[in-house]
Amino acid sequence: MSGAACTIVSGISGQLAVLHNETFFNESLRLCQMLPGSLRTYCDSIVQTLEPIFTDSELMKTFTPDIFCYAIGICYADKSFCYLFPKPPGNFYLNIQDFKMAAHVAYKQRNSSLVDVIEKLASFQFDICKLPGFSMICDTFNKSYTTLQPSLDFDGDYFSIYEVLNMIIRSVSGLNMIIRSVSGLNMIIRSVSDEVPTQAARGSHWRGRDCTDWNDNIYPGRLPVSEDIHKDSNCNGIFGMNPDTGEAYETELCNCTVSRGVIYLGDSVGAHFHMPEAWFNPRLISPESLHNFTMPFLDELDWPEYGFITGFMNTTEPLLIKNAEWAALVVILSCFQETIYP
């Protein structure tokens, strides 16, 4: 996985360098600046570590993302090694060795060595789930994937109010104060560093947004309780009574509709599994397209919020997946057409 990430990211940096007529090093730093928060610092550290390679004009003449990632030890060239970009002329394995030797020379001129650099790069590949205090968070997200339940669902009705949980995770040793309100509804994680936004896995994107996460009798799609005169029991935003007619708004507005349960067969098929073009096309990549890229990964690169089932999404997020709504509508209309006109 790390090898694929190295190849793709360095390939994008190379395309951005051509697009902006900029050096590979400067363009890599530009790409880092598009990333949110602490990831930007992490990316900067890696690029600065690799600066002797990125600024060596002779090395960059033979540079390809595949050779680069193999040479610095992120990918390993065994009998079944593969490549994503066009191979340079000659033997691919020997090209890797030549690039590695030239990189040794470049670092030696800086009173360093490629071996030290590879060890430093390896130190970047930490497992956040092994850090003190983080295991509880990782266990929560792992549970959501194995049980297909929201990772944060206080009333246990399988619906969550959270699309994004803003967890304040500061010091690595910290998470030392977990405060729950008396009713047990709010969880605040405090310590001393940056705010890290993460998606509540299997949250409101998947089943619709719960409007009251402390009452398991209130959730999206249920039959209204007492015509929802006193409260919105089915989370459609409609409740109360029309003072002019004396009739419940739920009855006036929804009486001609019927609630139906729908089952998706296959998450990724029904939820538009997709890799956004804006992440890979250098003409489209921007801070806006990358500012919250952890959310799609926590949704397993599915986009259920664009489907016709849940219909709930944050409209302030950039539209990374285009025409997904129309694709869902075409499928639904096709199903209706087959039903009406067999």
Automatic annotation (TrEMBL):
Gene3D superfamilies under this entry? Saposin-like (1.10.225.10)
Q: What InterPro entries is this protein classified in?
A: AOAH, AOAH_Saposin_N, Saposin-like, SaposinB_dom
The answer to whether UniProt assigns keyword Disulfide bond to this entry is yes
UniProt keyword annotation of Transcription present:
no
Record-annotated Saposin B-type domain positions: 2-79
Q: Which UniProt keywords apply?
A: Disulfide bond
Q: Which Pfam families match?
A: Saposin
Any one Gene Ontology molecular-function term assigned to this protein's record: acyloxyacyl hydrolase activity
PROSITE patterns recorded for this chain?
A: SAP_B
* Regions that span the bilayer: none
Q: Which GO terms of type biological process are on file?
A: lipopolysaccharide catabolic process
Q: What is this protein called?
A: Saposin B-type domain-containing protein
- To which species is this protein native? Timema monikensis
Organism classification, top ranks? Answer: Eukaryota, Metazoa, Ecdysozoa, Arthropoda, Hexapoda
